[in-house]
Amino acid sequence: MNAPLQAVRGTSTRFESAAGTPSLRSDLRDMFADLVDYRELLFSMARRDFLLRYKQAVMGVAWAVLMPVTYTLIFSLVFMRVVKIQTGMPYPLFVYAGLLSWNLFANSVRFSVNALVANSGLITKVYFPREVLPFSVVMVSLLDFAVGAVLLVGLMIYYRVGLHATALLLPVILLIQLAFTAAIALLVSMGNLFYRDVKYLIEIVLTLWMFATSVMYPVERFGGKFAAVLQLNPMTPIIEAYRSVLIRGEWPAPAPLVTAAAVSLALLLGCWLAFHRAESQFAERI
Amino acid sequence: MSGAEIALEGVWKKFRRGEKFDSLRDLVPAMARGVFRGRRRPDLEREEFWALQDLSFRVGPGEALGIIGPNGAGKTTVLRVLTRLLRPTRGRCRVSGRIGALIDVSGGFHPDLTGRENVFLRGAIVGMSRRDIVRDFDSIVEFAGLETFIDTPVKRYSSGMSARLGFSIAAHLRPEVLLIDEVLAVGDAAFQRKAYDRIRDMVRGGVPTIVISHQLERVAALCTHGILLSAGRVVHRGPPSDCIAVYMQSDSLGASRHPDSTVQLDSVRLETPEPVRSGDRIALRVSGHVPASQSVDRRVVGVRVRDLGRGELIFATGTHTHRVPLPEGEFALEVELQMNVAPGVYSVETYTFHREHDRDVLDGPSTTVRVEPGSAFWGSVQLNARMELGSNGAGPPPEST
Prior knowledge:
- The structure holds two protein chains of two kinds.
- By secondary structure, chain A is an all-alpha fold.
- Chain A has helices at 24-37, 39-53, 63-82, 91-112, 120-123, 132-158, 170-194, 197-211, 224-230, 235-248, 254-285, and one strand spanning 14-18.
- In chain A, helix 6 packs across helix 7 (170-194) and helix 7 packs antiparallel against helix 10 (235-248).
- In chain B, a hairpin with a 6-residue loop joins strand 16 (344-354) and strand 17.
- By secondary structure, chain B is α/β, with parallel strands linked by helices.
- The radius of gyration of chain B is 27 Å and the shape is globular.
- At the A-B interface, strand 1, helix 2 and helix 11 of A face helix 1, strand 4, strand 5, helix 3 and helix 4 of B.
- Strand 1 (14-18) of chain A pairs antiparallel with strand 4 (90-96) of chain B, so a sheet runs across the interface.
């Protein structure tokens, strides 16, 4: 080449692929190395997904707020006028905070279902760690979450809810939620690549899941055996923790949150490992 | 760049014809079958076939390997294993050095994003850092010749425009190993020349390279080694021109086994020692036999010459135009040709046909001739021009009054 060679950073420049399953250790090392090498791609991909989500949409990012606002109005109408329920805080605050964090999870899952399949042109032509695709979807949802959070601050000011020291726990709760969300995003994107049924299944699952989570009413109101099943859902302690530290100004109950954190981390590791191991088949099976 | 290397060691790759279960409805019975039969047999199951069988090679600095073969031979599979898209069923694949893959360069752009946005995205995908892309951005756009359209969404590009942009990005990756698949025919003639020069510079610069192309002339010109693949197996290994020769020969041999063949063509041999220079006369010997009790006066043995670079037939002649009668039994036909052609690789093919049924053409064996530069001229045919100054042409042209 005419131009002088200059070092180009990033991307692992050597690889070996052989038949057989590599050891757990080498897989974990690869996963970590890929994440470091391709971090710039992750941001580029998230930028692309963000541009695309609101391209040719006049309202642009306002859609990120409009959806939860509509639901807040409807649920407020139902649960303040028709069936009154006790939430320990102004109901619109309760439901908006719930919807905001629920949407971060649900939108990530909803859009990551297609993250791999919609990019089959890339997957069959270029190698890059495929994790980048579902992860970038989660990042875009996080951006929507940030935009929606501005309105939550507005609501808090309106209802004269002050900021408490407990809000310092927010980043930890967000990290737990992101770990859980990323795990499910990896799982469904991979699932949909192999079996396109997942795309249809996930809509039903998300709807049921929302009713089983403390989004518009506290699920403690369910009693009996059903309550025990609901305890397994990490989304409820996560959403409750947000409300607790931000609006009530109380430290969240430690046991459910720690359990949710442990479940989320274990799930993330498991799903990521499964994803990484299945990756080499993506180009063939998509 | 030292230490850059591409290596395959005993690589096998299995594929499945048709679809594997793509919905849960098919998965359940498949799993049930798996339980009853025991899982994962290493051998072929129904609907499976080997796309690559025991393929090994090593390409180091300063080497360029050309892989040729008919469609479905496994050429693209090799590149997909090397670009980490496929994992070998057996064997090992090793690449050390940053991979520059010039493969299907026009694909993979996002139609809704502008050229500029796509350059940054593609750059990141193929492993350039943002800083590198910013530095090379103007050069990429200029090489692609898309200065005025770079902020237009790619969905409004012509196919040539996206191909040029894709090639240009890939060419700016500063690769340490280079994989090229059929991108020698990207864009218009001017761009093809530019792209080819770029590739040639990289290969000559010592970057280990693998070239896959049906443009055999390009393979012959770029590569130091050759492999002829057919149905996933190595048929021939050696200098690129040898592989091309075997390829062309096997190609025609397959066609010559015709049940109705009356005249059998057995071999064609180049009698002239190589190198053959442009303008040289070459002698060929075509041997075969004519079965008895055939009315041979209507049968013709012909010779035709094909430019392998362009795949074009450039010359054909036969025994009927030279009034050579074919005898019964064995024959050896002496043919002389003057190679008034541009330097390149040519195949000399034999064929036979019946003068009254023109379509009944049967191909015989062929051989390749590599023509080296000889008497200087520009173009594809030597027309043996003569030039001299006339006795009264020395002065200026007469002015009209």
